[in-house]
Model the fold of this input.
Amino acid sequence: MAKRPQLCLFLLLAHQVPALTATPEGLRVRQHPPSLSVIRGETATLSCHFKVESLKYGVQWFKSEQQLISNSSRQIVVAKNQTSSLVITNTTIQDSGWYYCEVNVLKKDPEWGNGTKLVVLAPPSAPKIYLQIPPEPHTDQWALLCLTGGFYPSRLTLTWTYQSAAAVIDHLSVTNCTLPAEKPHSNLSEHPPNEALLSSDLLVNSEPRRQSKCLQVMDNHSREMYLLSVFSLPNKQSLKTGITFTCWVQDHPALTTPLIASFTWAVPPNELILYLNIAKMCFLSTTIAVFLMGALRNIWAKGK
Done:
């Protein structure tokens, strides 16, 4: 009876080592590494090691245990000395997933490896900031937009900060948009319909008044993620010149340093509105001039 606890402990420890598969005939299959992350465009090499006594064997690679992988211009299977390697060149986001090797020995049941999880990382683009001018600049609220995209997986943090040397600002608060690593949001379907090109969701932080709204969009074909953050500015009368707003993009596994973009409020709002009205008048005048020239050209052509 004293040996039974030791036997149970041995079986428990053996169950915690999934990297080795053995059969009574002595066939053992082990994949390495258990997981692998590469940047999009790099080469990924997955290895499968096995020991067989027979010289009559074959090795096949599968993605998600169902999709058989054949040699192609980007996917090459190399076998040597009871080791099979799957080499994927110019990796894409669609290459992400679980890969398994299957070893077949003559007159024996096939054996599977423990699997390798491949994650192809796509870094986010450099953020860009746009000034959103409302239809009624004197009364409506202005906003700043920060856009980044083309990244995978979804884990990302976008942060707004501000700095002013000429004015004291105590009524603006720093706001974040954080996307989790897995399942970005319940409304984003893992298996979207074929006709749906994009999946989107609106994430809003907990601030009651001036909220930083985050619009998250996923391209269902390429699996790339896009993030748009809308930062509502205070009333234009309270904004002074010399305020610099900065959008930070960080915490993505493909980034080593944060990406930033800045916007400086260089002119007073009333002066900016004046410039906008002048630009509108110039555009309207140009449109009228082009229309009149076209009308005169038609009259002149009919007169001939």
Notes: Residues 269-303 form the longest helix (35 residues). Residues 1-5, 7-25, 183-196, 202-212 have pLDDT under 50 and may be disordered. Helices lie at 3-15, 269-303. The radius of gyration is 30 Å.
